[in-house]
Every structure is written in structure tokens, then in C-alpha cells.
Amino acid sequence: MSDIDHLVKAIDPVPHAPQPGPGAGELRAAIMATAAPPARRRPPWRAGALALAAASAATAVFLSQAAPTETPSPARSTGVTSLSGASVLLAAAVKADAAPEGAYWHLKELHAGQRPGPYGENGDTTYHLETSSLFEQWVARDGRTWRGFRQLAARPLDVEAWRRDGSPTEWPKGRDPGPPYSTSPGESLFFRNKGKPRLYWSAMPLTLKEIEELPADPEALKKRALEAIRRDKGAGPARDALAGTLSSLLYELPVSPQVRAAAYRALATLPGVRAEGPATDPRGRAGVAVTFLTQGDRTPRTRLIIDPGTSKVLAAERIGLPDGKERRQVVLESGWTDTEPSPPSAG
Fold first, then answer.
1. Residue ranges of the domains in the chain?
2. Residues 168-217: pLDDT tens digits?
3. Is 189 helix (H, G, I), strand (E, B) or coil?
4. Alpha-carbon distance 279 to 46, whole Å?
5. SS3 51
6. In whole angstroms, what is the distance from residue 254 CA to residue 210 CA?
7. What is the dihedral of CA 215, 330, 289, 259, to 10 degrees?
8. Would the CA dihedral through 199, 204, 209, 214 be positive or negative?
9. Helix, strand, coil share of the chain (percent; to 5)
10. CA atoms within 13 A on the CB side of 123
11. Over the stretch 24-46, which tens digit does the pLDDT of each residue have?
12. Comparing C-alpha atoms, which of 136, 278, 114 is closest to residue 181?
């Protein structure tokens, strides 16, 4: 049995915006008109210990059963780090190819970050906030789309300084739209987009029909990805942006399971792909990290954390961007479903 066969067996193959679309203006207007947040509830940033343990166990099974594709060096303590990134991606492709379809494509993302601040009085009472929000998008087979947004509870990064500041429960947003940041989650916003909005792949606008017609052949898919990248003037060298653009097909766009599997296989052919081994996303969910390096300076550009049990992307990070910042997308849900569109929940 080959190394890939071992990996495929380990992941039982039984039974996933760059540019804002036309609905972005409606969403912004809805956010600005949001009412005051409801009653306080448990902060959403605390991951459940039971869920983390289950995810960790799935990762352990995947890594222990997968055969190494390189000979471990003496410096490596286990065979985990000897897995090649290509092998992990090819095994994920098998799982993705068998994923179920449904009436709606559903994407639910968590956007988190640190507010500029600082908040509080001068001196030892100043602190920064970590804020987060949920974004959801639903796409029906007939092209109808819905969007949802919910501001989640904010938390002080320095709890002691926050207490010295009087433990406030709200903070002004300044120039940002909407109500103040709060220790309670905000109201859910949910609406159907008007007209026939386009979806974006890099800087390339696509209709749902065009997305459905994307090739399921890895090499043909790479060519189409390069076309999309060349429309984006800020993407940099096309080859360096290829990993990020292909990765978006794994969780952002409503592609078929076959195209999603082809995206995994296309990513596996890129130079500089490597497996980092077990990793956790910002929500504490366990998975396997795969990093893609540029062909030039070998600086990490794209890092994915993949759930070995489902092959779905848990988080996608862009590193070494021209502005020196890092961008992170935490993917809570992504895939085809028969569940009807609904307002975002708090978790």
C-alpha cells in the first residue's frame, strides 16, 4: 500500500470575500442602524473543552495512521512532522470529493482583531480590546443570496487594568459604524440581497453559473486561478498569490465537491508546500497545519489549518503581506446544506 493509500485510509472517504459584492452597502447600512445589544451572555471566545478534546483525538488518529513520506531526521521526535504537505492535501481531496451537496451554500466566518485603543484612563488603567464578529453568506442553487452579521462580545486584553478602570461594559467605536463595543453580543442582522449579486474569486467577478462551470481538473483550475489573480493589481506576483487564491475555493465560494477536491490536488502540486503537524485555530479547534512558501524568498504566505475528520478548512492565514500585517479567517462553517438561511447565532 502506498503512502497516499495510507493517508486516504486514515481519512475515511465517506459521507469547501476577497472583494465585497453589491450587498456590502446594504450590510453596512444595516450595521449602522443596529439597536442596542441584548442582555449579557457568556463570552463566545471560550472554546468548549469537550469539542477540543474530540478534535484533538481526530487529529491524533489521522497523524498516527498516516504513513510518513519522508525519512525522519534525528532532530525529529516523531513521524508527525515527516508528513509531506502534499500528502495531507491529497488525502483531504479524497474526503472533499465525497462531501454531500445540498440546496444552499453556507459560509460562516469569525472575524477577530485588536482595537487600536487604548481604552481606560492614562497610566496603569489603559488596555486594549479584542473584538470579534460573525459574517454569514447563503447562496441558493437559483442564485439567490442572503447575508448576516453579528457583533460578538468584546473583551479586555488586560483584565486587571480593565478592573482598575471600573470594569466598563461598553466602549465607543470612534469612526467605526454601529453601536459601541460591548461585553454582550449585539443584535443579529440578516437580509436577502437584491438583484443578482456576483461572487468574487480574487478580483474576478463570477456568476453562480460560472462558478459551477469551474474545471475539476487540477491543472485547468490552476490556469483559471492565474486568470483571476492577474485581474487583481494588488495581488503581487501571480505565482506567489496562487496558494491563497486556490485556497479560497476550499471554503469561500459555492463550488462543487469535485472542484473543491481539485483545488486540494492543485495546491498539492505547488512548490514549497509543507506540513507543520498538529495545530489549533483561534477557537481552540484542533487540526493539521499546512504552509505554502513563495518561490522567491521562501517567506510563508498562506497557512491553512485543516480538520482531518472532515477535510474542511478551520482557519486561513495570510502572512508576509506588503503592509506587514497578517490576515486571518476563522471558518466556523462552510459547505452545502439543506438547512434554510437564518440570522447568525452568537457562537
1. 3-337
2. 999 988 777 778 899 999 999 999 988 776 788 988 889 889 999 999 99
3. strand
4. 17
5. helix
6. 11
7. -10
8. negative
9. 30, 25, 45
10. 3
11. 444 344 433 433 333 333 333 33
12. 114
Tally the residues of the chain.
Answer: 347
C-alpha cell at 250: 476550499
| pTM attached to this predicted model | 0.71
215-250, pLDDT tens digit by residue? 999 999 999 999 988 887 665 677 778 888 999 999
Cell 462553517 belongs to: 333
Whether 85 and 268 have beta carbons less than 8 Å apart is answered as: yes
Using CB atoms within 10 A of its CB, is residue 285 exposed (0-12), middle (13-18) or buried (19+)? buried
Displacement of CA 127 from its chain's centroid (Å): 28
Buried/exposed code over 236-256 (b: 16+ C-beta within 10 A; e: otherwise): eebebbbbbbbbbbbbbbbbb
Helix (H) or strand (E) holding 108: strand 104-114
Q: How many Cα atoms occupy the beta-carbon half-sphere of 315 within 13 Å?
A: 24
CA 175/CA 100 separation, integer angstroms: 43
As given in the structure block, the three cell numbers for residue 260 are 473543491
